[in-house]
Amino acid sequence: MLTGIHFLLTYACNFECDHCFLYCGPSAEGTFTIKKLVRAFEEIHRIGTIEWVYFEGGEPFLFYPLVLEGVRFARGMGLKTGVVTNAYWATSPEDAELWLAPLASLGLADLSVSDDQFHHDSEEENPAKPASKAAERLGIPVCSICIEEPTVEAGASKTQEKGEPVVGGGVMFRGRAVEKLTEGLPGRQWEEFNECPYEELDEPKRVHIDPYGHVHICQGLSMGNMDKNPLSSLVKDYRAGLHPICGPLLKGGPAQLAREYKVEHEDRYIDACHFCYLVRSKLIDKFPQYLTPKQVYGLE
Ligand code: SF4
Question: What is the rounded average pLDDT for all residues in the chain?
Answer without folding.
Answer: 92
